[in-house]
Amino acid sequence: MFDLVPFRNRNRRNVVERDDDPFNSLVSGFFDDVMDFAGRSFRADIRESEDEYTIEAEMPGMKKEDISLEINDDYLTISAEHNEENEEKNENYIRRERRIGKYSRSFYLENVEQDNIKAEYNDGILQVHLPKTEKMPVKKRTIDIE
């Protein structure tokens, strides 16, 4: 049903090298927090039951109005845009932060009643319910290893 693309593959050696760099360890904590929202896609879990598929997407800090769902050519696209600015009235501020991020993930839909898709957003979790059009028989076979 879903066409999934794996996340960027980080090898262990690069992670260890980054941790050894003193400059990286000093600055990475700050920039990881600031750039976290702008640099990554949201996480999504996909569950299947007898009657439907369910996508649960983690979108903390988002407002319902910032999220959009669209179906185009059998692809469900979940998009979100987030703007956050911490404003301080003090002119002698040491640190001022802004976060701006746009996210988009697409999922290929197969065996889904597109007219009956429902979505709800509560406590930072978007749930998209995708009812199945028909029950698909489980295909099981054994694959020989050469």
Automatic annotation (TrEMBL):
This is Heat shock protein Hsp20. Pfam families: HSP20. It comes from Halanaerobium salsuginis. Gene3D superfamilies: 2.60.40.790. Keywords: Stress response. Signal peptide: none annotated. Belongs to the small heat shock protein (HSP20) family. InterPro entries: A-crystallin/Hsp20_dom, HSP20-like_chaperone, Small_HSP. Residues 33-146 form the SHSP domain. PROSITE patterns: SHSP (PS01031).
